[in-house]
Amino acid sequence: MVELQRNKERDWMKQRVMVASLCVLIVFIMLFLRLVYLQLIKGEEYRRLSETNCVRLKSIKPSRGLIFDRYGELLVDNRPAFDLVIVLEDAGSVPDTISFLSSLIDEPYVDLMEQIQKTGVGAVYKPIILKKDISRDQLAVVEAHKFDLPGIYVEIEPTRHYIHPKTAAHLLGYLGEVNKKELESGHFPLLRAGDQIGRYGVEKSFESYLQGRRGGRQVEVDVNGRVVQVLKTVDPEPGNDLHLTLDLPLQQLAEDLLKGRDGAVVALDPSNGDVLVMVSSPAFDQNDFIGGISNNKWRALMENPGRPMINKAIQGEYPPASTYKILTAIAGLEEKQIDGRTTTFCPGFYTFRGRRYHCWRKHGHGRLNVVDALSQSCDVFFYLAGEKIGVDALAQYAMGCGLGRPTGIDLDHERQGLIPTSAWKRERFNEAWFPGETLSISIGQGFNLVTPLQMAVFTAAVANGGTLFRPRVASTIKDVHGQVVAELEPEIIGGIPAGQNTLDLVRKGMVDVIQGDRGTARSIRIKQIQMAGKTGTAQVFSRKTGEKFDSENQVRTLQDHAWFVCYAPAQNPVIALSVIIEHGEHGSSAAAPVAGTLVEKYLGLLEPEQTADAAPEG
Amino acid sequence: MMFDRRLLEHFDWGLLLLVLLISGCGLIVLYSAVMAGWQGHGLHSLFERQLIWIGAGFVVMTGVLFFDFRHLNKLNLIIYGVCAGLLIGVLFFGQSGGGSQRWLSLGGISIQPSELMKIALIISLASIYAATVSPEGLSFRQLLKPAGICLIPVGLIVNQPDLGTGLMLLLIAGSITLFVKVEKKVLLILAGLSGCIVPVVWFFGLKAYQKARILTFLDPDRDPLGTGYHIIQSKIAIGSGMITGKGFLQGTQNALAFLPEQHTDFILSVLAEEWGLVGSAVLLVLYFLLISWGLNIAYNCRNMFGSILAFGITSMIFWQIFINIGMVMGLMPVVGMPLPLVSYGGSSVITNMVGFGILLNISMRRFYTG
Q1: How high is the pLDDT of residue B106?
Q2: For residue A210, what are the CA distances in angstroms to A172, A179, A478, B136?
Q3: Nearest to residue B363, comparing CAs of B18, B25, B1, B115?
Q4: Which of A339, A473, B168, B227 could form a disulfide linkage to B220, CB 3.0–4.6 angstroms apart?
Q5: Closest by Cβ to A234, choosing from B39, B224, B258
């Protein structure tokens, strides 16, 4: 019985194994036939293909997205650059070819050979770049002798081109070659060694939009490496175009006005935070960075005392000086320490705990209220106000107004400035806060630090009724066909913690700075419209040391920074500005005229020939 | 365990010889693949490592011979549980490599639990089917448990994501199930069911990029700069070998780095280029003998568990060969699948050697029943 069962099982197993064996046999016969097909029937053809290695892959770089200003004016595009490459396999005798080439294009033989050695001889079919971006003359010579230069090819490479060199350099940024670490990080799956990526400015912040997608071609080439037939193509996807909020003519004017001076200008649209102008002077030429900046140029940039590689608009941290009085006034009014009727008598100084704190006007301002104090920038009035408000309440208002924290602009390296509190000082210096220090910070001296961008955002908020906008550098991103890919909406990041009455008083003070008979910036007054602003003169060094300096240069670096913030027109503002001129001495004489000229230009009040005259002396 | 002299008498020298021959061929081809166009001194480290892996593989294979394979039947749940545990471990503590998380580091040794899972799944399925098999075939209810046992690891592995190994598990499980026979109506129902589910998943369950990936997988020409290009170069390499090949170390496609992954998945193109139709046919014949040998072991075993186990192991080897060779010759979609005993890679060598060890084990104990 058991035996019968066993036999039955054996038969069953035999049948299953037979079926399986049959399947296996069929599969192996199929594989064998495929081998016969490839190696026997098509063998000749594949042998020929393998001997010339004629099926190759050529990569097609995508063209990077263009950058436009707010009016659709092209700022950054791509131009063709001609790279000289060699494919070793096609070159015949490499030393002969290279030495002939070197005599033709007048480049040292060793330099060219070094490029080949650097890449290594393993990749005989991969083009090795001998020289990037050759000149038109070199191109002409190479093209004329191309039949005597086997294996030497000219590859056309789209290269970044900044149409207005140095204009908005810090905002636009520049490109650099992607490094090994970035490639290995996996953040840039589409990039390969040798590709360029944004290194600075919006080129970096909007990299993912601008980059595009690489394509390629499967090509068949002949024995000399020339393309006979394109087998398959995957088109590259061009990067998306970036439309900035920048106003190119205004930016260029601002750069002209700052020429030869160190400083920054930021202009915003108070209604939405659009960055109309962002100047940091001195600037650099972005075109120098293409294909790697030369050592000499880089050293010159690094050694320039004006620090051209710093975007002073967002990285420069300066004492706000008297421009801070706007904030002290807001805090005092809101904290009910002062009101519109409060008056103070300014004899030219204020004695606090046995020490004299001077007003900038030696003989004093006499009796004045908050509006007068703003317009004449009286220090004594704000010493008293600040003393009553206290350091920590002041700091709270400053933070509420967007100072002491980054504005969140889409640019790297933004600094946050510094708004001191008593707690901060204890932690930083392990020291209690001295009441005398409150007097200093209430007029914007002391530990306070702000960036020109922060002051512009704050001024724009005063202008628009209290809304703090995140500064917006780009408004739209469009694809190559003009379809909108992304809209970057204005973004509210906070509001000035103040009521309507407070803002009205502050704005009246700011209008009087320019329109008032004793206003500190009355020199920039124009007939057509009213402006509102505030001057500032930031002490770089305490003058009390009384040391003497011989060299003129040293004296210059001890001169004060000139500040001016303003908006216009006073009633329905369309532009808010912040200007700082390093070592410009007085805000009223150095910074205010710059802002005034820009306002006139933006509002179309400037006669074209007036532009040059209006530029103040450097 | 007492040493049984019969074991030595019944030892399957033929299978051992086949394994040795194929490993030998593999090393010769791997030598070409890594040494051609190499500028360094001495042996390429990949070749040295593969030597070590094959040596270790033989040690492991020998180790597998020393216990009665029927113990695996009793231990199947534990083995399965441990492997499933390791797979879950990968989910939480695994190391990433090449975009997926497959490796687990245990005391300095990196292991790939998905490879071990292949063997564990075969053992478990053999154990279940050995108890339920009948000449009429399995009913729908009898298939529920095996289906669950199979789908848990498949889900975990596909999630890593390692589509190749996941697909492999499904193929092995499917082959074993068909081998032990299912009722005709169940087969029809399953076919109908999947016919309904696939379109639904395709149109509603998958995102565009997932569909694109599957389409490229089925048709490499959709990706002419990636896999499509690889396939063309692979076909040129194979075809250009013609009848007798270009000779040892003479393969130009190989040496000039036109072949992708020439030491792992695309190693057959190196063989075909350098040794021609003759060389490729020799390897194909060796593989065919190996598979037939495995099926013969399944047939000769007097123990139902042993038979199914032997079949399962053989099917594992078979699918690797079929998919790899089919892929390299442009017959199959491109999926990471090594060629057994020839492609470089420690996990693959060790897993397959364990498999051969089990086959030898079953073969030498083929007269054991019950």
Answers
A1: 65
A2: 12, 18, 10, 65
A3: B18
A4: B227
A5: B224
Which residue in the block uniquely carries the two structure tokens 């397959």? B352
pLDDT band at residue B296 using 50, 70 and 90 as cut-offs? very high
Strand partners, A155: A83
What gap in Å lies between CA B37 and CA B48, rounded to an integer?
Answer: 17
Q: Can you give the pLDDT at residue B310?
A: 95
CA-based nearest distance A44→chain B, Å: 7
Q: Flag whether residue B248 sits within 8 Å of chain A, measured between CB atoms.
A: no
Minimum distance, in Å, between the CA of residue B258 and any CA atom of chain A? 9
Range of the domain at B302: 5-37+46-364
CA distance B276 to chain A (A): 7
Contact B224 A46 (CB under 8 A): no
Closest CA to B35 of B345, B344, B360: B344
The answer to whether B272 contacts A55, with C-beta atoms less than 8 Å apart, is no
- Residue B327 inside a domain? The answer is yes
Write out chain A residues lying below 8 Å of B138, CB-based. Answer: none
State how many domains chain B has.
1
Residues 107-146 of B with CB under 8 A from A: 135
Q: Is the pLDDT of residue A549 over 60?
A: no
3-state secondary structure of A357: strand
For residues B73-108, one letter each, b for 16 or more C-beta atoms within 10 angstroms of the residue's C-beta and e for the rest, the string is: beebeebbeebbebbeebeeebeeeeebbbbbeeee
A150 is written with which tokens? 């086997």
Q: Is B283 on the interface with A (CB under 8 A)?
A: no
Q: B369 in a domain, yes or no?
A: no
Nearest CA-CA partner of A594 in A172, A245, A262 = A262
pLDDT tens digit string along A26-51?
A: 999 999 999 999 999 988 888 887 87
Separation in Å, CA of A16 to nearest CA in chain B: 6
Q: In terms of CA atoms, which chain A residue is nearest residue B38? A: A122
- Is B191 within a domain? yes
Token pair 């020291």 is at which residue? Answer: A431
Interchain pair A36, B232: CB under 8 A: no
Buried b (16+ CB within 10 A) or exposed e, B219-232: ebeebbbbbbbbbb
Q: Using CA coordinates, name the residue in chain B closest to A59.
A: B225
Higher pLDDT, B369 or A104: A104
Residue ranges, CATH 3.90.1310.10, chain A: 56-244
* Tens digit of each residue's pLDDT (9 = 90 or more) over A373-416: 999 999 999 999 999 999 999 999 999 999 999 999 999 999 99
Contact B236 A46 (CB under 8 A): yes
How does residue A616 score in pLDDT terms, banded at 50, 70 and 90?
very low
Provide the shortest C-alpha distance from residue B299 to chain A (in Å). Answer: 6
Catalytically active residues of A are: 322
Q: Which residues of A touch B331 (CB under 8 A)?
A: 30-31, 34
Are B175 and B315 contacting, i.e. CB atoms less than 8 angstroms apart? Answer: yes
- Determine how β-strand B109-111 pairs with β-strand A349-352: unpaired
Tell me what pLDDT residue A115 has.
Answer: 79
A398 and A418 Cβ atoms separated by less than 8 Å: no
Going by pLDDT thresholds of 50, 70 and 90, the confidence category of residue B370 is low
Instruction: Name the phi and psi angles at B39, rounded to 5.
Output: -100, -5
Q: How many CB pairs under 8 A join A and B?
A: 130
B370 belongs to a structural domain: no
List every span in chain A annotated with CATH 3.40.710.10.
248-290+311-614
Q: In the beta sheet, which residues pair with residue A494?
A: A468
Mutate to test the interface with A, among B44, B138, B225 (most CBs of A within 10 A): B225
Record: contact A17-B272, CB cut-off 8 A: no
Please answer yes or no on whether A35 and B258 come within 8 Å at the CB atom: no
CATH architecture of A56-244: Alpha-Beta Complex (3.90)
CATH class of the structural domain A248-290+311-614: alpha beta
